[in-house]
Amino acid sequence: MPSKVFEAVQDLLPAIRERAIAAEQARRVPAESIAELTAAGVFRMLQPKRYAGAEGDPCDFYEVIKAIAAADGSTGWVSSVVGVHPWQLGLFPDAAQKEVWGDDPDTLVSSSYAPMGKLTPVDGGYELTGRWSFSSGCDHCQWVLLGALVVGPEGKPVDFLTVLIPRRDYTIADVWDVMGLCATGSNDIVIEKAFVPSHRGLSFNDVSALKCPGQEVNGSALYKLPFGTIFSNTITAPIIGMAQGAYDSHVETMRERVRVSYGGQKVAQDPFAHVRVARAASDIDAAWLQLIGNTREEMRYTEAGEEIPKELRLRARRDQVRGTERAVESVDLLFKNSGGRSLKSGNPIERAWRDAHAGSVHAANDTERWLAMYGKGAFGLEIEDAMI
Question: How far apart are CA 247 and CA 250, in angstroms?
Fold first, then answer.
């Protein structure tokens, strides 16, 4: 059964679709789209109930993201990455959660996880300096999650933290000028000697071990799921949505299109077009069913209070990167089958092609790395990686 948020989002999709070209030109998702998605409850789907969130099923969240991304890839991408941050914030000490949501549960958080910052221990916390790239949707957010290394007395890294920083402590450098996901506004975050209290830091070792301070106050099965699954699926879900949007647009457009060079034959009567459409549809379905199936299986373990097998966590990453790969391959097929008209700027197929390829280069989509990791596990070799 579709969630209430999914049903609410359906009414927003036509306007999101209509704003897509203007959003690309502005290089950010329109404020009205963010306001509408906030009102629909998209950004509270994975937020703790203690702070007016739905604390819902991640599969419901992914369903919503897929639908938004089918209408516009950039809006789907921003909705996904900003929408998953309440889940991670739920792993932080409660003092950090209260700072963000205590006065306004609709407060939004962006991120940039690469450890590009330097944390120096000081009384009560850390001093942070650095510059981070690719913080999608940051213009709409009041806080940011950033990756940083804790540097010891000898100048060597001793820990890897995700730190939570308020808008007053950072500046946004407007550098986003790209060929795909153009409207995500994934600009740079710049910080010079900001104080970070200890409660606003979360060790990635704790995240990987599924033992975080936030679980003491947020005890549901949702907050016991692996970061490697929840966040990585957050990257793949919108790409599958982009492929679904390309498929829907392609089938609708090609039903009546005539290929003059083929003697006036309708594309809908071309058996080779039938094969391409079938292959694309199969790849999209396979990508989606595996993503949802693995997430649900992991949820069953956490709901039962049982440890998630490493084999399942590896499989989830295997299928996540293959899901992205399948989605991109399906868009390539549809792009080719659309002919020369798909080259026209602003064409939904052309935009989906650019957006899907842009999303595929995210670090979570390092296909060979995760296929090799799965293979190591299949052969019984030891695996130590924080992103499983």
Answer: 5
Per-residue pLDDT tens for 156-168? 777 899 999 999 9
pLDDT digits (tens, 9 = 90+) for 300-340: 999 999 999 999 999 999 999 999 999 999 999 999 888 77
CA angle 134, 71, 364 (to 5 degrees): 35
Most distant CA pair in the chain, distance: 78
* Sign of torsion over alpha carbons 316, 321, 322, 324: positive
What residue ranges define each of the domains in the chain, with the CATH number in brackets?
4-103 (1.10.540.10), 109-204 (2.40.110.10), 225-378 (1.20.140.10)
With tokens 């739920």, the residue in question is: 90
109-122 and 143-151: which strand pairing?
parallel
The two tokens of residue 280 are 């694309």
DSSP type of residue 344: S
Q: How far, in Å, CA of 207 to CA of 201, rounded?
A: 11
Amino acid at 17: R
**pTM (2 d.p.):** 0.96
Q: How many C-beta atoms surround the C-beta of residue 217 within 10 A?
A: 13
> How far apart are alpha carbons 297 and 305 in whole angstroms?
13
Report the alpha-carbon distance of residue 361 to residue 359 in Å, rounded.
5
Contact 367, 375 (CB under 8 A): no
Give the Cα separation of 373 and 170 in Å (integer).
Answer: 36
